[in-house]
Amino acid sequence: MKIAIHAKKGSFSDRWIQYCESNDIAYKLVDCYSSDIIEKLHSCDALLWHWHHADPKAILFARQLICSIEAMGKKVFPDSKTCWHFDDKVGQKYLLEAINAPLVPSYVFYDKKEALEWVAKIEFPKVFKLRGGAGSANVKLVNSKRYAQKLIKKAFGKGFGQFNRLGYLKERWRKFCIGQDSIWGVLKGFARLAVPTEFAKIAGNEKGYVYFQKFIPNNAYDTRVIVIGDKIFAVRRYCRENDFRASGSGIKGYDPSLFDKRCLEIAWDVSSKLGLQCCSYDFVFDEYNSPLIVEISYGFITGPFYDDCPGYWDRAMEWHHGKFKPQFWIMENILRSIVEDNVVSESEQFKV
Ligand SMILES: Nc1ncnc2c1ncn2[C@@H]1O[C@H](COP(=O)(O)OP(=O)(O)O)[C@@H](O)[C@H]1O
Ligand SMILES: [Mg+2]
Q1: Fold annotation for 1-77
Q2: Which ligand is nearest to the CA of 237?
Q3: How is domain 102-214 classified at the CATH fold level?
Q4: Over 80: is that where the pLDDT of 348 sits?
Q5: Minimum-distance ligand 1 atom for the alpha carbon of 282
Q6: Which residues are 78's β-sheet partners?
Q7: Which of 142, 206, 225, 247 to mutate to test the pocket of ligand 1 (most atoms within 8 A of CB)?
């Protein structure tokens, strides 16, 4: 058995490599961006590649490469079921509606006139989002018809930059003020006003659609639940001061008593129905105290944010106290699925 890993410092691959080294698992490092990647994978059983939503090169071909590797009969992380909707809130809307998952009511329009007609008859506030983005960067509260109309005109006009430059600077400043960023971070924020990211340059402006969600008020935090195989863990993320947005705030809570078991159940249910290898779910609670999903994602940051989780639940909802590395679970699940496939194919040979 041999595992191919695309290595990138700071991504899941650091720990995948660590796992292989400490458990004597044969692995080779591959470059997913090289033209001969398929040939390089012939000698391997699986590929693991933690690609980032704002990697300008990965978004050009990651999904296509993954489908092709699946066609070779190899295992891959993330697989196509897990990642086709990654960083795509529009795709997630259809997917979650299709399985009757409790998604915050979400609305998408591909026609300016239709969007303006809808806006004329709805109540405010609503939440406007681009289909992509993280850390709340592309999420806005829309308090008035006028503002909604302005956003619609922009969506069907010049569009929105993929990278919110002013938002980025404000966020750097906010984090600096609460001791989570350095002055260099703030200066970087200033520099980004003039120099767009590679991702923004390659991806171009977002336009031709507009996406809104019902605003679910009075949530001082969101609940992020991550399911990997038969294990689940959670982080409560508190909103920024005077803001409805929690994602990216950096203010968090981990005590298991903070988490509503219904969020865990919904996350299990969706992950098993959709066959997701790894998925995070962001929940808010409506006026009836029912949990609603705002978005899902296969990727999350590595490092202290999740490493500080004091434990996890298993499928029987038993709490297991103690630190863990979720990236190890991903590797273990891939290894297990390779072994299971081999057992099946051996028993099929035996039948013949
Ligand atoms: N419809 C909504 N109603 C109330 N709060 C929301 C809604 N959608 C998002 N939020 C808040 O905004 C944050 C960012 O939204 P999210 O869709 O998760 O975007 P991102 O991809 O940037 O994390 C969430 O963490 C949540 O706190
Ligand atoms: Mg989110």
Answers
A1: Rossmann fold (3.40.50)
A2: 1
A3: Dna Ligase; domain 1 (3.30.1490)
A4: no
A5: 18
A6: none
A7: 247
